[in-house]
Design a protein that fits this description.
Blueprint lengths: L1 H20 L2 E5 L7 E3 L2 H5 L4 E2 L3 E2 L9 H5 L4 E4 L6 E4 L5 E4 L2 E6 L2 E4 L6 E13 L12 E13 L5 E3 L2 H8 L3 H8 L3 H18 L2 E4 L1
Helix pairs in contact: 4-6
């Protein structure tokens, strides 16, 4: 009787899982991403890219860096509904090229190096700081602008992007109770060194899906 009960429970769980995934499609890495441009996060989640064939350009669409060339200009023309229209590059969400995802951060596109429920990518960010005090010349006016590398994370399920820090990364990983306990058993230094590994482990345990 107990064995029969367990079989019924397992069957019900499998049925529920099948229903929950019926309106979605496994995204990556099993499903390759075609080259295209996503205007918004919603387009990205529903896998509705602007295809290369819908981009109006003199560039050869068979080139491996065709999409990159298109988004290198301030705006470009597409023909998706029978009539041409222009899109501003800074307003795009992302593009895919050669099975890699490039996210728009502050008007520039950066390749996602860890893809999944937790997306991670380094980006070049302009940092503006007040001019420093120099005892030889006194205070100098104006500001100093530098370009520095920053690490960023995107939550796949809402599109939020934010600067990477250890606590935020840990909180995202700790959504998985088993991984959180395993991660918590590491010493603090080991946690800092292995946080990227645990982001990958989280992504492997929680595959992402397109919404149909």
């Amino acid at each position: 009787m107990r064995k029969l009960f367990l079989n019924v429970v397992v069957s019900c769980l499998l049925a529920l899982n099948a229903v929950s995934q019926s309106d979605s499609a496994l995204m990556f890495p099993r499903l390759l991403m075609d080259d295209g441009i996503f205007v918004s996060y919603e387009d990205f989640r529903h896998n509705r890219p602007i295809k290369k064939s819908e981009i109006v350009s003199a560039e050869n669409p068979s080139h491996l860096d065709f999409i990159k060339k298109i988004v290198s200009s301030d705006e470009f023309t597409v023909n998706t509904g029978g009539s041409p229209s222009k899109l501003k590059t800074r307003e795009l969400f992302a593009y895919t090229q050669n099975n890699a995802l490039y996210l728009n951060y502050r008007g520039q596109f950066f390749r996602v190096t860890i893809f999944g429920a937790i997306c991670y990518f380094p980006a070049l960010v302009k940092v503006v700081t007040p001019a420093m005090y120099d005892p030889r010349f006194g205070y100098t006016s104006g500001t100093i602008t530098t370009t520095e590398t920053r690490e960023l994370i995107m939550n796949f399920y809402n599109g939020d992007m934010f600067l990477f820090d250890f606590e935020r990364a840990k909180n995202l990983v700790c959504r998985d109770k088993m991984l959180c306990e395993e991660f918590g058993q590491l010493r603090h230094r080991a946690q800092s060194e292995q946080v990227y590994r645990y982001i990958r482990k989280f992504n492997e345990a929680h595959p992402v899906y397109y919404i149909k």
